[in-house]
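Cross-check.
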Amino acid sequence: MGVSLLKDVVRSQLLRRLGLHVYRTSPHGYDDLADIGRTGAPVATVFDVGANVGQSALRFARAFPRARIHCFEPVATAFEALRGNVAHLPQVVCHRVALGPSCGQARIWLDDNAQKCSMVVHTDRTQEVEVETVDAAAARLKVDRIDLLKIDVEGYEMQVLAGATGALAGGRIGFVLAEVSFHPDDARHTLFDSVRGFLMPYGFRLLGIYDQALEWDGRLSLRFANALWCRPDALASPAGDP
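Predicted model, tokenized:
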């Protein structure tokens, strides 16, 4: 046993004799999924919008092993990689479709980096994709409630939210995790203020900001991050509350 560990054990034993206990917790704002877990809110259904090759889906499966995770990814090459990466996870279901403000067909601009394919940032290559709304997808899948709606769609976040107004108005979405920008001229990321302004009338409040990235030129100001919102009524009641 190391010296520091031994000191911790002795200190804990002395505190217990005084009727005190020491608890160690991760700091709030460090891990988005851990913060969701600490709220006590159950997560049974996740919509992973802009699933790419499954990076987020794998995290969701580890954090919420009992949840059904629906991954939405329209780009053909990314979708095939996604299916391969989550094939061992029966709780993950993959859908080759984009989510947006209305159902139909649309064009997505492609990039050599699959994470940068975008419905709004133009390149010299495109692909026609099927588009569905969050509300339509939920109805098709017979999903009554989306506990976590994750959106990472390279500047198309507001369009995805516009297609979720039925679920939002009905209080059927508990958490929204979206990539957002703090730079008004950043076309690839949706402005934080826009997402916040859209969600607040539906009762959402900011829970945390994660994975912060500074300006690419080295300036010490925040360029983009992942922001997590929740509805207060999505949270479990503290012990002893009715």
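The first helix runs from residue 3 to 17. DSSP finds eight helices and ten strands in the chain. Passed to J.P. for a second look.
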